[in-house]
Design goal:
The chain has 165 residues and is mainly alpha-helical. It contains six helices and two strands; from the N terminus they run ααααββαα. It has one domain (25-154). Helices cover 47% and strands 6% of the residues. The chain has a two-stranded antiparallel sheet with strand order 1-2. The protein is elongated.
Length: 165
């Protein structure tokens, strides 16, 4: 599920100008956001629930819970070997995706089975771990906006109001 940031038309033009001039660089703020994202995903795995309070992942089926306990004693939901959790929460490990450019950032895991666990299948309920909370998303938008406004002002462009629609 893509997370989209909507900009005002004026903001789009200003950001395009900065980007074309090679002056827009969001890498520092994206690095901070990446760390925050990994911490949030780790907390979701540790709590065994999505970000919304009061919600919990559905338990494993009785049959699978017995099988899993025999083969992976004590392993919580969504964890067998720890590879998926590690790929989502630790930069540089196998499967971790942390792509940061001047204007874009992507964080996640390349482990193919993560999508099935996150989104569910016809035989397995979704147990979302990858989507940031609304609160965290607003914090990150605020960080990005402050950084962009500073860069615009450093370039002599006066900014009034929010750059986001």
């Amino acid at each position: 599920m893509p997370n989209e940031i909507k900009l005002t038309e004026e903001s789009k033009l200003l950001l395009k100008r900065l980007s074309q001039a090679g002056k827009l660089d969001l890498r520092p703020v994206f690095k901070v956001i990446g760390e925050g994202y990994r911490k949030e995903v780790k907390a979701v795995f540790d709590r065994q629930q999505p970000r919304s309070k009061g919600l919990a992942w559905q338990p494993l089926s009785d049959k699978y819970a017995v099988q899993k306990e025999k083969k992976y004693p004590g392993a919580p939901i969504l964890v067998r070997t720890g590879a998926l959790k590690n790929s989502m929460t630790r930069r540089g490990v196998r499967g971790n995706i942390a792509i940061i450019t001047k204007t874009n950032a992507v964080f996640g895991s390349s482990l193919f089975y993560g999508r099935f666990l996150d989104e569910g299948t016809v035989r397995m309920p979704a147990r979302n771990f990858s989507e940031p909370s609304d609160r965290r998303r607003m914090i990150w938008l605020d960080q990005i906006e402050r950084d962009v406004i500073k860069q615009l002002e450093d370039d002599g462009i006066e900014v009034t109001g929010s750059i986001f629609a």
